[in-house]
Design goal:
This protein is an alpha+beta fold. Helix content is 22%, strand content 35%. The longest helix is centred in the C-terminal third of the chain and has 20 residues. It is elongated and about 100 Å long.
Length: 261
């Protein structure tokens, strides 16, 4: 986990003079078994130094690598003698730890505010007639709005459209394979066939195909809708086309088709 580190250290020399050192840096916190580790990097006098802090139940170990090399251990009631290696030379540091208070956090009551309902409610009509609905002018809107980028397909957890590609090998051009490749029904060229024929050239008709496949074709075959209502397509669309809005338009479109009849 990435964290921001603020450390203030108070040190005393042999004359009793106090020196306060403040550190602010971005680092990483992770846990291994029962121990917590904090690792961060900082630059001192133009040299990069890596610091590792190991927090145990009753002891804290601080190791520094780079221009400075040292290992400092802090344990209540213990004295630790360690070498402090710097570009200027080696120093011996003697730590007298009288008390060690390791703050593990503070317990408090809280409640997670989960999402309990969607802002947008979908009404999928049960009386869909795909042949009549394909003639409705509601799809013409997407001829202008949709740019056929295919993003809605690639973020959809249930889109499985594919195409075929013939691949030849460099070492033997007479050998190769035909691969099934994930594709998008919105992308230009998806329904192209030999001779230049294409089933759906207009973007609005591609939108119609995808919509009815999600809420009509799939349910007719398997008994439930293909769309899971995650909203990823609404979020990713660069033209702000809402698939949920399209679904809600189907009811009115079917009523208009009936009235025209």
């Amino acid at each position: 986990m990435d964290i921001n580190i603020n450390i203030q250290t108070t040190q005393f020399n042999e004359l009793g003079e106090k020196n306060i050192i403040k550190t602010n840096s971005d680092g990483t916190l992770y846990q291994k078994k029962d121990h917590k580790y904090i690792i961060y990097k900082q630059v001192e006098d133009g040299e990069e130094i890596t610091t590792s802090i190991k927090i145990e139940e009753n002891m804290v170990t601080i190791k520094r690598f780079g221009a400075l090399n040292s290992t400092l251990r802090f344990k209540a009631g213990h004295v630790d003698v360690s070498n402090y290696l710097t570009p200027q030379g080696a120093f011996i540091i003697e730590n007298h730890t009288k008390e060690l208070d390791i703050f593990e956090g503070e317990a408090c009551d809280f409640e997670v505010d989960y999402v309990k309902e969607n802002i947008i409610n979908l009404e999928v009509p049960e009386n869909i007639n795909p042949v009549e609905l394909s003639k409705h002018p509601m799809w013409d809107e997407y001829d202008a709005r949709c740019i056929a980028c295919g993003k809605c397909n690639f973020v959809c957890p249930t889109c499985t459209c594919f195409t075929m590609q013939d691949i030849t090998y460099k070492d033997n051009k007479n050998a190769g394979e035909r691969r099934r490749v994930w594709a998008s029904c919105h992308v230009d060229g998806y329904t192209d066939m030999a001779g230049g024929h294409s089933f759906r050239k207009e973007k609005g008709q591609k939108m119609r195909f995808k919509t009815l496949h999600k809420v009509y074709d799939y349910k007719k075959k398997w008994g439930y809708h293909m769309c899971v209502g995650c909203g990823r397509c609404d979020d990713i669309c660069p033209e702000y086309i809402s698939f949920s809005t399209i679904i809600n338009k189907l009811e009115d479109a079917m009523n208009e088709v009936k009235n025209n009849d």
